[in-house]
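Protocol step 4 of 6: structure prediction from sequence.
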Amino acid sequence: MSKPILMKGNEAIAEAAIRAGCRYFFGYPITPQNEIPEYMSWRLPEVGGSFVQAESEVASINMVYGAAGAGGRVMISSSSPGISLMQEGISYIAGAELPCVIVNIVRGGPGLGGIQPAQSDYFQATKGGGHGDYRLLVYGPATIQEACDLMGKAFEVADKYRNPVMILGDGMMGQMMEPVVFRDEVDSSETQAPKPWATTGKKGRPANLINSIYLDPEVLDAHNWRIQEKYMLMEQNEVMYEIKYADDAEWFLVAYGTIARICTAVVDKLRKEGLKIGLIRPITLWPFPVEAFNQVADQAKGFLCVEMSTGQLVEDVKLAVEGRAPVYFYGRTGGAVPMPKNIEKRVLQMIAGKTPVITDYFEKIQGGGEI
């Protein structure tokens, strides 16, 4: 392994993609992920790759479709409104069973919202933001190092299942700096496993055809159920999560991404004060780590979801818990970040049997205070 390098998150993610064999990048600038395409624009030519800034997000995702169909390791990145524009193309890519990696450095919404960090794209990422019955495998890294490590895995899993994979970060991860260690060897595109399905020219073999249109409903029905089998394999084989203090914890914080780091500090502090509290951190947001909740269901007295959204993670946690314990929520939106003292307050409310209020905003409204 190489020595640690201090890098901004966006640039580290881009370098990790190149070291994972990515040789094609198509995208369009949008804050707070602009450093990814900027980095790719000069770094890819150094390794024999190609960078294209398209005229729009719609154009760029369809360029990804073309490069993936030709067998290339290809990536695209954007932020929330740009990812929204790509949804039709992402559905096409999933329907055509093509591998690619999509990075979403989430900003506050809805609409243009703001450029500060958020987690409000969780539904869009995990429930299939476009049309049709499809899924993305979605990773939610908590550190820049983990994002870099997962980037290599994302390309491998995308190729394994012939399916788009998303890295779901946020503006904090994109803009902050941390030391990272990269894999020493930079893979060339020639070292990847053969892709006999790719549209690389007949070369004495039957022609390959890649599309996502099936006019016969019976054929489309069969296609849908076949790719559902692929998603079931992902659920069986690709789930990743972390549990802290599962042995004795009675109350659990649930968080992913950068917010999980804040929650970790809260958990460690409260345990020093004698509270039996733990943390469940989903790493794969889809497939969702239901088994993590099954591990602690018999001992858990309650779960508190902490998010930078209005409670999108809560639905999956409730489905995983299946009514075996109450599920509470604390969130901030629009770029506001949950602070440790406020999370601690919600934990104490949960333990005391008081339903934590949703946000500081509503707490002030209910108390008659000023915003």
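Step 5 (inspection) to follow. The radius of gyration is 21 Å.
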